[in-house]
Design goal:
Blueprint (H helix, E strand, L loop, with lengths): L1 H13 L3 E9 L3 E5 L4 H10 L3 E7 L3 H8 L10 H7 L4 E2 L4 H10 L2 E4 L3 E6 L3 H28 L6 H14 L16 H17 L9 E6 L2 E5 L12 E5 L14 H11 L3 E5 L2 H7 L12 H4 L4 E3 L2 E4 L14 H4 L5 E4 L3 E6 L3 H23 L6
Parallel strand pairs: 4-5, 12-13
Antiparallel strand pairs: 1-2, 1-3, 3-6, 5-6, 7-8, 7-10, 8-9, 10-14, 11-12, 13-14
Length: about 375
Amino acid sequence: MMNLFHKYLGKLKNQKLSDKACYIVTEDTVSVYGCEADAELLRAAELLKTPCLLFVKPSEPFMTALNEAAKGGEFAPNDSETRTFLHTVPVIDGLNADEISNALRRRKAVFVRERGIVTSAAFGAEQAFIFASSVIFSGFVKYFADAGEAALLKKPYDRALTASLIKQYIEKFPARSLPELNKDIFRTDGTIMNAMVQAAKVTVDMGLVDSFFGNISAFSENNIYISRTGSSLDELEGEIDVCPMDESSCTGLTASSELASHRRIYELTGNRVILHAHPRFSVIMSMLCADECENRGRCHYACTKKRFIGDMPVVAGEVGNGPRAMVNTLPPEMKDNERVTVYGHGVFTVSADDFNKALRLLTEAEAKALELYQHLACQPHVD
């Protein structure tokens, strides 16, 4: 069990999200893994009577972005991860056990101003890690989306702070040359799955997806090989389902919730691989719009405007198979585009051969989104 807690502490560090974190495990006795635990955290763990509690102090620029996002109290970014997973993030002013436990009884995590994130999980170390990394993503998206919208609408915001945080972010996640991924991948089930495992791990290693979000698939001989729902892209071994295109098998029950979108993309495009991630600035830029139309506030499923990040289309659509789902909007757009962003959700890329091109398209999309954001929100505007 100790190795499991250290594993996720290591993930927080390796993904450059935090250098200071600890798990508090309450079983027969109280055990702490990681940094020293504050007495109020220990008391909160006892009050909650949960198997484990996780405290994370985000590294920069995430900590400052979270503090800024939390200035108005409980916050609710409009990205897909927060809407479907966290809903809102409560905010408190200090490490107080009663306030922490009260917040965690109604939400998955709480942000403590100037201190960090506290999460509790009934199902152990992985679940707590997912909650914490999701809050880091949500707070980052919230701050930069708010600043970007203010810049777009020419409203006041702290341009100098925004530029400073972008600078820190680029230093933390510098542009990297792409590794060469497996080629000639469609020889056997094994070569397909090995290529998916490799490409998925590289996607996480390059900071293009957080937590356990994103998905990946390949199409061969009327079967879709797709990551399972809830799987982590950096640990995909044994987490790939093989789903017949004609839906004659029930294996799709454990497959990614976006299986229907993948299936329709394959039907319409003739491509053979799909890579989907949640790169931060692609998500942020997809949410920025100056229009005060009748669909404002319902953009993630009701937007009908043709929008682009550079030359990459942005479409609306929710997860799932309903009338407002991306399965109705994303696949048709991919008939003429090899990369498309879903509002507040992330980027989908395709290729006819292997994952090399899909990964390149993904990194290029995020680089362009970051470049456009800098031009919008970090440069002095001249009227």
